[in-house]
Amino acid sequence: MKISFDLDDTLLKYPNELLSFGLFMQKMGHQVGLLSGKAVWDIEQNIIPALQRVGFIPNFYIGADNEGIDPGPEVTQEEKERDWKPKKIIEHNIDIHFDNCADLMKGNFKAIKII
Fold it and tell me: Which residues are paired to 75 by β-bridges?
């Protein structure tokens, strides 16, 4: 299974709970990573080192400018949640995505809303 976490208001809001779950799932042989509207450079320079310090190494990470595709500043946060993230979930075969804005997402996939 492939599982992803949003960062802002999801993983960064509930790090103890979600990182414990992520580590457990990795130990069970699943891939656990990040899907965020943050830029890849920000994830690489700031988020990954902080996660590594607490013992979590994501199997993958997808940021807003990953694969040369950047939705850009003219794309609203709502558009990212509604269209961009669902597209990435499908493209990367993510089975379950945890996100505080899961209710905004359009598409046929599993996204779990984190309050």
Answer: none
Instruction: Give the integer Cα–Cα distance in Å for 33 and 26.
Output: 10
pLDDT exceeds 60 at position 66: no
Range of the domain at 64: 2-113
Q: Specify the pTM.
A: 0.84
Q: What are phi and psi of 98, to 5 degrees?
A: -100, 125
Number of helices (H), then strands (E), belonging to the chain: the values are 5, 5
Q: What pLDDT is stored for residue 67 in this prediction?
A: 47
> CB within 8 A of 22, min separation 6: which ones?
3, 5, 32, 56, 58
Cα atoms in the 13 Å half-sphere on the side-chain side of 37: 21
- Measuring CA to CA, which residue among 7, 102, 104 is closest to residue 113? 102
Structural domain total, the chain? 1
Domain containing 96 — which CATH number? 3.40.50
Contact 62, 36 (CB under 8 A): yes
- The confidence band for 79, taking pLDDT boundaries of 50, 70 and 90, is low
